[in-house]
Amino acid sequence: MSGCGLFLRSAAAARSCRALVAFTASRRSLRTSPPSQAFAKELFLGKIEKKEVFPFPEVSQDELNEINQFVGPVEKFFTEEVDSQKIDREGKIPNETLEKLKSLGLFGMQVPEEYGGLGLSNTMYARLGEIISLDSSIAVTLAAHQAIGLKGIILAGSEEQKARYLPRLASGEHVAAFCLTEPASGSDAASIRTRATLSEDKKHYVLHGSKVWITNGGLASVFTVFAKTEVVDSNGSVKDKVTAFIVERDFGGVTSGKPEDKLGIRGSNTCEVHFENTRVPVGNVLGEVGGGFKVAMNILNSGRFSMGSAVAGMLKTLIEMTAEYACTRKQFNRNLSEFGLIQEKFALMAQKAYVMESMAYLTAGMLDQPGFPDCSIEAAAVKVFSSEAAWQCVSEALQILGGSGYMRDYPYERILRDSRILLIFEGTNEILRMYIALTGLQHAGRILTARVKQLKQGNVTTILETVGQRLRDSLGRTVDLGLTGKLGVVHPSMADSAHKLEQNVHYFSRTVESLLLRFGKTIVEEQLVLKRVANVLINLYGMTAVLSRASRSIRVGLQNHDHEVLLANIFCTEAYHQNLCTLSQLDKHSPENLDELIKKVSQQVLKKRAYVCAHPLDRPS
Amino acid sequence: MSWAQGILLARGLSRGWGGICSTALTGVPFSQGPPQAPRGLHCSTAAHNPDSSLVPRPPEPPRGPVKALAPHVELFRQAPDGVRDKASFVQAVQNFTQYNVHKRGHVDFIYLALRKMREYGVERDLAVYNLLLDIFPKEVFRPRNIFHSIFLHYPRQQECGIAVLEQMENHGVMPNKETEFLLIQIFGRKSHPMLKFVRMKLWFTRFKNIDPFPISRDLPQDPVDLASLALRHMEPDLSARVTVYQMPLSKDSRDATDPTEPHIIGIQSPDQQAALAHHDPARPIFVEGPFSLWLRDKCVYYHILRADLLPPEEREVEEIPEEWNLYYPMQLDLAYGRSSWDDYEFNINEVEEGPVFAICMAGAHDQATLAKWIQGLQETNPALDRIPVVFRLSGSSGELLASSSGLEEPPLTPPEGQEEEENNQQRQQQSQS
Q1: What protein family is recorded (chain B) (predicted)?
Q2: Which of A215, A414, A584, B388 could bridge B407 with an S-S bond, Cβ 3.0-4.6 Å?
């Protein structure tokens, strides 16, 4: 098996030369081409940036062969040698398994080749993620190591730091961890208590503080730590700002607590990490002093898209396992698979897997384009959609399995437990929805500023124009954004779905405009509104992704593309109606909108901190 | 029949008026005792004098030949060992019914019994009320025809029945099915006691839980428990913690001449603690009190630790830090705000008050006791060491006394400012409502 690992390395080395050439080429095109507009942001303005999403990103035949060469041995290893049940029971990944993962090069998948990593593109990283997710403990350990743990060094590290740390991190000799969360600080950077003070000789920072829930905290020997430092402002005042540091365990004063007992991903190591009098050389500051906030944000935003492919990989195996059960288990002399209610669940799982796969690879392909496009909204949408779909599908799978889904002898309950964390980590879905909606609204708000101002000042032409538009909309006009037709990018077999997408996008932009007009910048406080905006956007992105992918499948003639068309049409129709409902809730005075009542109920419950109603058996006297 | 019902209802509504008229016209008071204020729907004297609303007081001696009362009073004196409890009350009532087979003078007896209920501690006992109603002879007072029900049929008896229900109402006793059954048997469906009963059934359930801050009927006797109950009652923040700074001395030593260790119990919420920690030590804070708080029929006194409102120019403007939320923007960079159509904020003129940092209840209201409270607070609020504390106790001689820790020249005693008084009143209202 180690030969295989060697092979991977050599393949990576071979790729590196090619990649270098490609990189210089792409750099040139970067200068000449106009800055690419992010797709999702433009959706808020009612535009579909066809260039970005059509056709569905492809990889060249060479690259594909290369990926398959990576994938084969890794898949073999995961299916044959990894015992997920044992890892879950014992709460630890065996050392042999870790060694094997290291020899496969999986600890440095996205580390550039010149530092000894595999230097995978985002697309290839997503592809490998599909397989690695077969064991979620390993997936989380690897993700904590490279998606966040060492990502800071790749993104913000100096050449020196990269040369010093990346080779050993890529080989797995050192494991990395990302230390941001504190007892008092989850997503609130202002309440970080860990403090780094410059020593007398100005050569060291002395680090004090503790971090909680650090994945790999017990294994890691290199930590990306965020701490408050005193920074002198441009106007001379001293302020506390967050700074990122690379901290080695050997610097001294680093202790980790005992591993936490968790609901799922029990094989991954999560613990507290304490820093006491840890002396960090000044050269280990990551990025600028006081620039830690940006570093943290970039790291967090960069890694999310891969969850889509990982969950899709997990769902595919789950579909296989449950289909096996449904086709063999007999009740009333019929297989379970003959019952409509069971069939429905398989359709759901297939559809969700298809959508999230499409979204994930579309995003990965966009990220791989030259010019480092900002795809953070898309990545967040992938994360939200895939994590929620995972929870829903696993739960439905358990329903198919009935009692055996609940038993610990079978792997299903472990999958359920493991998939629960997806909704929570890497930014909870609630927070990411805020991010999606607010980032998009900020973009739309800036561009619409002039228009909104004219409307507010009562400019007659603008008002008449708006009223006219609304009137035409309400009369049910057909929206044509050029997805279909003679030069259309969507295949005619999905023309209906494409029209639905166009219509949704159009009305979405209208709603965004009226929301901005109504709330302005105070929309930040309207979280229930923002949630709906984000939901619509996630659906729109999903629709685009499946339309793009299915169109490509038909055109290049992939196997079973008619099945893909089915799934795409199902999803688009469902999402279309969901969107219509959500958009109508966003109207003012909409009867479907129960926000005020919901707020009242929650206020009353929270005021009492208890369930308010009297017991149904209570009597008045 | 519906017109009869309508008339009945109309009569019921204008009962107070009708009562006066009939009294004035006939000249025969149908209720003994002093003439009562008219009781319409809108004026209820019951609220002020809950125990004797309809029950007439014992008549003055020269009033006339009312000999019937005397034996009834005897019935209540009969308790052999002088124990006044439910059993002896029931015994007295039973004695009346047995002794007086024809139920002569039963109205007077019921009025008497109603007056006596409190002495026997049965004023909240539904069974006893039903027992009293049971004294009425059945079927006799039921209206036989339409004219009976239009006019007040057996007015004195109906008044008496209403008096029973009225006393139930004043003590918050909800009538039950048995009461209803008795009333129907005695007065019939179309009678004033029944009307009263139906109204009670309707409104009792609605008014019973109208108080958003209910207090249990039986208050704890122990002053420490009572004080912590009162403090919890006043403090809106549920995470606030009650601390007993000093327990009262044990019972035998309390009998000693000077109770040097009265109880001190305080409450403080985490928010108040944080506010105190951020308080500018150059500004004094004040211990004020005692203010009264009523818990049912008990009055307790409390003190507050408060500061004056910061003048507007010194208030720090709370600014949103630039780098705050790692995940999403906390504010949008847009040039326009909420449109006026979507602005549902009412223009409420709010009186701003200085912050209250803690509340305490102590067995004594002198400065020495309250200084102990402040000492106790210092353990959890280290900032208090540096802040001068001024005692402004209304019960004291009027001189201002500065605590040992601070302030050489205390400011002149301000007469309790209007704002503060409002503050207190609000506080009390809050706690009482």
Answers
A1: Belongs to the ECSIT family.
A2: B388
